[in-house]
């Protein structure tokens, strides 16, 4: 059956964003050929929310301590696009990729599924 998920980020500066993911976020990767990097991600989960509008997808990176994570990323020169805001479901912020794209981060305040089955 399904054994993984493949997420694609479309970027106006793919080379810079790939370097950021590898060098700043520290994700290991493989070259799938011709410099097309594919990065190993932390454990993941998927949620399905109702909408009255068109179907869409969103990507968020989760962290255990959003203030600490943002401080560490700031020290590495990462721009914080949106400071921490308190949501009903967690603490939300966003950083900027080198291409200018927004990458949301959140610290969940709800049970998470990404670690189910781990000892």
UniProtKB/TrEMBL annotation:
Family annotation (Pfam families): Glyoxalase
Record protein name field: Putative enzyme related to lactoylglutathione lyase
Residues making up the signal peptide according to the UniProt record: none
Source organism, top-level taxon: Bacteria
Domain VOC per the UniProt entry, residue ranges: 3-108
Keyword DNA-binding recorded: no
GO molecular-function terms, A-Z: lyase activity
Taxonomic source organism: Paenibacillus taihuensis
Keyword line: Lyase
Keyword Lyase: yes
